[in-house]
Amino acid sequence: MKVTEGTLDKRMSAADIVAQLSSGMTLGIAGWGPRRKPMALVREILRSDLTDLTVVAYGGADVGMLCAAGKVKKLVFAFVSLDAIPLEPWFRKAREAGTIEVLELDEGMFQWGLKAAAFGLPFLPTRVGLGTDLAELGGLKTVNSPYADGETLIAMPALKLDAALIHVNRSDWRGNVQLFGPDTYYDEWFAKAAAKSFVSCEELVDRIEDHYPDDATAQTFERCFVTGVVEIPCGAHPSSMPPAYGWDSKAFKAYADAARDPGDWDVVKQRFVGANEADYLASFGGKEAVTALPLPIF
Amino acid sequence: MSDISLAELCIFAASEAFRGNGEIIATGVGPIPRLGAGLAKLTHSPELMMTDGEAFLVEQPVPLGPRGYDDRKKAGHLPFSRFFDSAVWTGRRHAMVTPTQIDRFGQINLSRLGGTHQQPKTQMLGVRGFPGNTIYHPNSFFFPQHTTRVFVPGEVDMVSGVGYNPARRLPGGNYSGVDLRRVITNLCVIDFGARGDDGMPAMRVISLHPGVTFDAVQAATGFALQRLESLPETALPGAEDLAIIAGLDPHGIRAGVFKDNPPARPAVAQEQSA
Lengths: 298, 274
Prior knowledge:
The complex is a heterodimer.
Chain A: H1 14-19, E1 26-29, H2 39-46, E2 53-57, H3 61-68, E3 72-77, H4 89-96, E4 101-104, H5 107-118, E5 123-126, H6 134-138, E6 142-144, E7 152-157, E8 161-172, E9 177-178, H7 187-193, E10 194-205, H8 208-211, E11 228-231, H9 249-260, H10 265-273, H11 277-283, H12 286-291
Parallel strand pairs in A: 1-2, 1-8, 2-3, 3-4, 8-10, 10-11
Antiparallel strand pairs in A: 5-7, 6-7, 8-9
Chain B: H1 6-17, E1 25-28, H2 31-42, E2 50-51, E3 56-58, E4 76-77, H3 83-88, E5 93-97, E6 101-102, E7 108-109, E8 112-115, E9 120-123, H4 130-136, E10 139-143, E11 180-185, E12 188-195, E13 201-208, H5 214-219, E14 226-227, H6 239-248
Parallel strand pairs in B: 1-5, 5-10, 10-11, 13-14
Antiparallel strand pairs in B: 2-3, 3-4, 6-7, 8-9, 11-12, 12-13
Helix pairs in contact in B: 1-2, 2-6
């Protein structure tokens, strides 16, 4: 390695990443429902004493687990779902107990708020939200077009993130990422909306141009948006990470069933979080079993 | 005719909602709407665009249920990462979905029931993309159980989709994209072709399924419905339509939509209107 590259080595451990976070932070979690979730990093948070988080996510089990563990002060969301299990049961319990504050948004407004944050704007205008309960419940203000049309629009506030967690297919030490699969959702905008983005990856290489130069178009956000990188194969489990593996239906079902019986997160936490990532992965059959999970068919 | 199911009748009615929509994304969520969109594309409206339910555009609608991951032939790419740019916020889409509640204004709810926003009695999905869908592009709805718990009096518990409620329209807002098309239920087909006292579009029953009376529909609805003066029977699919439906649903998932998979025409026609 050349000496000049030294400061670009962004490798960290998952514990190092969580040590960079602090209680009370606004944390974006990339992915979408049961897909492409940085679950290993979420599990690392669940093993930590972080609390009072404002979580901004297109939610799946990441949100359900953080709610169940009492880590969430406020949730910014448009849905929380495991798709095949439409209603996320641990999120549901937290909502019905009235224990979390919420800002409920439309899916499109949500990404609009990330884009406003990415561009350093206070808000971006949109029609979305007009005629529904969202504006009043969320305290969203309106703005009038200064042009001849004078249209009244919702001013979607920037969703500024103190940190974002993202799971990608590949990265090098410098944070040159590559994202594959049919859909990478809004991962790039989580990265750009955040003061710091931490990336876990299925595969880490030293210099990506020496290994996968033909896949450079899969870099959906540039390395200036990456603060730290850690290699965690199967780090999205139990969510899906195409093309490497699909979601783990059995694991999701067990997790959902546990919300009813025993219904107490402390009793089941060990099973769904594990003492460490190696133990966790081994308990679900290891890399061999996870990478054999079929991609979901819709 | 006796071998046509109520599910197939509803699929056929759903396909009619997508007729002549042009080159837009037809999204049907759930077996009946999805089969309806597929049937429309394979019969009267080949110009419709649709996805494989994930991120790829297909010109041959994908069948429901288990199949090979790579069975679908990709004709294009429409991931969520640009779904709002390409489909929703440009108005180039018509979605048919099943919310939990709908009110007389056509406002829908799938977020939560009862309680308060801070502590709902029942938390459901969240508003998802409905606020944007309903202000930007045409929408239709399918309800497998037409009851007063679904067609609620007053307003829905949380307004997740825009309707024709003048009290919720801010001066200066642009509501020109609000375009509610059809409501298909286990009893009837409704459009928004009537006008309310407020001059806004209002629900109007336009056909009754075989054996159903308007009074039965009204009794199952939490608000007053308008109607065509002369109400036809909802049209039944023909043999070609049934063959296409069967091809799009090789595992027979449509048979599970209604309890006991009833026929389109009840054996005893009086049962439903009693």
